[in-house]
């Protein structure tokens, strides 16, 4: 009976082991192995102090001594170069292009005439009105002179005055209509495109009906960021601007952060000035913006590859004084921000700690090291 009971218990043990989650079992075994390795190494070290045949070999390592340093985290986003003054000169009335006075690449001044629409009918009307206005003005002046001498009726005087002023208003309106047919430069800069030709019919708001003028003397970089970064980006934040096509990098600061989230793509706009404006810059050229969103002026910083992981958390090896030399010692750490392969250590290290950054492969806690 006892024999059968023993067999039954063993079967239960085997079944329970077999149904245990493999991941959980592996973690337990790894933890046990780490503990056993540490105990074995410590015993070997203790024995080696009195028995030279058991002395552990020293491993050659490289170290870095922990000192507070500046740590910055950046948000990287693709943007583009644009001009502060990147505008289109558009007609304000439909019409047929009568003349074009500039070509692509020309430098123009603000207010300079770039092109004009056909205004022959309007000019003819202006000439007719001028004749009528001259007659009405002459008639009014005579009627006024008579009225001042108390000759004639007030109605005659007021009629002549009203007719003259009405013609003046009509003439001013025609001149304004002619002015609307003049396409002028809204800013000083360079003509980038003239998409229409003489004789072509163009209208406001229709594609191909405007002359683009860009002033690259005042350039900027523009990008759109996800709304999750909105609390992190502030005006005045440092920006590193990389221009891959030119192989250049420059520094700037955020000068504008939009308060509006685009409902279509859930992004907001960020701008930074482009200081040293060069002739090779082009509007819409691709850039990479690295915007500083976090800075710690007194951080302990380590490469990610020297931070090891175990079931009990992240740790590093430090070289700890022992007797006449040093031994490797495990120190558990906590990390903060990570950028460009470097991690901010928020807990676990102190100033002056000698962290092993090379030669740590196969290293065990308590193993002698030299550097």
Summarize this entry quickly.
By secondary structure, this protein is α+β, with helices and mostly antiparallel strands. The protein has 4 helices and 21 strands. The chain folds into 3 domains: 2-69 and 298-370, conserved putative lor/sdh protein from methanococcus maripaludis s2 fold (Beta Barrel); 75-86 and 215-295, Elongation Factor Tu (Ef-tu), domain 3, CATH 2.40.30; 89-202, RNA polymerase II/Efflux pump adaptor protein, barrel-sandwich hybrid domain (OB fold (Dihydrolipoamide Acetyltransferase, E2P), Beta Barrel), CATH 2.40.50.100.
Question: Topology of this structure?
Answer:
Elements: H1 2-18, H2 22-50, E1 59-60, E2 62-65, E3 69-89, E4 95-100, E5 107-108, E6 113-117, H3 120-148, H4 154-180, E7 182-184, E8 189-193, E9 201-202, E10 211-226, E11 238-243, E12 248-257, E13 267-273, E14 286-303, E15 308-310, E16 313-322, E17 325-332, E18 334-339, E19 342-347, E20 354-358, E21 368-370
Parallel strand pairs: 1-21
Antiparallel strand pairs: 2-20, 3-10, 3-14, 4-6, 4-9, 5-8, 6-7, 8-10, 10-13, 11-12, 11-14, 12-13, 14-19, 15-16, 16-17, 17-21, 18-19
Description:
- With 371 residues, the chain is α+β, with helices and mostly antiparallel strands.
- It folds into three domains: 2-69 and 298-370, Beta Barrel (conserved putative lor/sdh protein from methanococcus maripaludis s2 fold); 75-86 and 215-295, Elongation Factor Tu (Ef-tu), domain 3 (Beta Barrel); 89-202, OB fold (Dihydrolipoamide Acetyltransferase, E2P), CATH 2.40.50.
- It has helices at 2-18, 22-50, 120-148, 154-180, and strands at residues 59-60, 62-65, 69-89, 95-100, 107-108, 113-117, 182-184, 189-193, 201-202, 211-226, 238-243, 248-257, 267-273, 286-303, 308-310, 313-322, 325-332, 334-339, 342-347, 354-358, 368-370.
- The strands form four sheets. It has a six-stranded antiparallel beta barrel with strand order 3-10-13-12-11-14. Strands 1-21-17-16-15 form a five-stranded mixed sheet, with no helix packed on it. A four-stranded antiparallel sheet has the order 7-6-4-9.
- A hairpin with a 2-residue loop joins strand 16 (313-322) and strand 17.
């Amino acid at each position: 009976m006892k024999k059968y009971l023993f067999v039954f218990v063993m079967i239960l043990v085997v079944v329970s082991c077999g149904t245990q989650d493999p991941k959980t079992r592996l973690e337990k075994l790894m933890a046990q192995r780490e503990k056993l390795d540490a105990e074995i190494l410590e015993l070997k070290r203790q024995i080696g102090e009195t028995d030279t045949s058991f002395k552990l070999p020293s491993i050659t390592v490289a170290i870095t001594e922990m000192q507070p340093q500046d740590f910055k985290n950046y948000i990287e986003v693709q943007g583009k170069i644009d001009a502060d003054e990147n505008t289109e000169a558009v007609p304000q009335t439909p019409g047929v292009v009568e003349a074009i006075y500039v070509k692509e690449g020309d430098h123009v001044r603000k207010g300079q005439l770039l092109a004009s629409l056909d205004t022959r009918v309007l000019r003819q009307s202006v000439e007719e009105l001028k004749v009528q206005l001259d007659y009405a003005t002459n008639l009014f002046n005579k009627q006024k002179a008579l009225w001042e001498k108390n000759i004639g009726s007030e109605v005659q005087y007021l009629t002549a005055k009203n007719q003259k002023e009405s013609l003046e208003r009509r003439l001013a309106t025609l001149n304004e209509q002619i002015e609307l047919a003049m396409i002028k430069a809204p800013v000083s800069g360079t003509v980038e495109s003239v998409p229409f030709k003489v004789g072509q019919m163009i209208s406001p708001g229709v594609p191909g009906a405007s002359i683009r003028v860009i002033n690259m003397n005042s350039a900027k970089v523009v990008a759109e960021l996800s709304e999750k970064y909105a609390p992190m980006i502030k005006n005045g934040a440092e920006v590193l601007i990389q221009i891959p096509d030119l192989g250049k990098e420059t520094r700037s600061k955020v000068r504008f952060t939009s308060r509006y989230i685009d409902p279509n793509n859930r992004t907001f706009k960020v701008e930074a000035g482009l200081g040293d404006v060069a002739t090779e810059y082009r509007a819409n050229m691709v850039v990479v913006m690295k915007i500083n969103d976090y800075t710690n002026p007194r951080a302990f910083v380590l490469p990610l590859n020297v931070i090891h992981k175990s079931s009990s958390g992240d740790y590093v090896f430090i070289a700890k004084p022992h007797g006449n030399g040093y031994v490797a010692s495990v120190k558990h750490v906590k990390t903060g921000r990570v950028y460009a392969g470097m991690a901010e250590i928020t807990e676990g290290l102190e100033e002056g700690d000698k962290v092993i950054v090379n030669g740590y492969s196969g290293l065990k806690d308590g193993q002698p090291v030299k550097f």
